[in-house]
Amino acid sequence: MYAVIKTGGKQYKVTPGETLKIETTAHDNGNIEFSDVLAVSGEAGKFEQELTGAKVLASVVSTGRGEKILVFKLKRKKQYKKMQGHRQNYVEVKINEILVNGQSFKA
């Protein structure tokens, strides 16, 4: 059992009980509800046709910042060099439940 959700401009394949790191999103009391569900599969190779009201419920495990990414720009023979670092904020969430068509799939 898995679902494909869209958040932060990216798509994630999630299953109940899984933890994953997503871009920072607003959450209340440590709970997040993903209502932008693109696909749900109850068994291998078969997808649900009706996805109205489908949602994925998750709880926040932790927040933090990712690994540093170095961006280096160089123009040879022009004496131009620029180095810049970036660390992306993230929220680590645990998928608790997938709801679709009145059915509930839990870990």
TrEMBL record:
InterPro entries reported in the protein's UniProt record: bL21-like, bL21-like_sf, Ribosomal_bL21
What's one GO-annotated cellular component? cytoplasm
Q: Name one GO biological process term.
A: translation
- In terms of superkingdom, the source organism counts as Bacteria
Q: Which UniProt keywords apply?
A: Ribonucleoprotein, Ribosomal protein, RNA-binding, rRNA-binding
Summary of the function given for this chain in its UniProt record = This protein binds to 23S rRNA in the presence of protein L20.
Spell out the NCBIfam families in the cross-references.
Answer: L21
Q: How the protein assembles, per its UniProt entry?
A: Part of the 50S ribosomal subunit. Contacts protein L20.
Protein family according to the UniProt entry = Belongs to the bacterial ribosomal protein bL21 family.
Question: PANTHER family from the xrefs?
Answer: 50S RIBOSOMAL PROTEIN L21, LARGE RIBOSOMAL SUBUNIT PROTEIN BL21M
This chain belongs to which protein, by name?
Answer: Large ribosomal subunit protein bL21
Q: Which organism is the protein's source? A: Granulicella pectinivorans
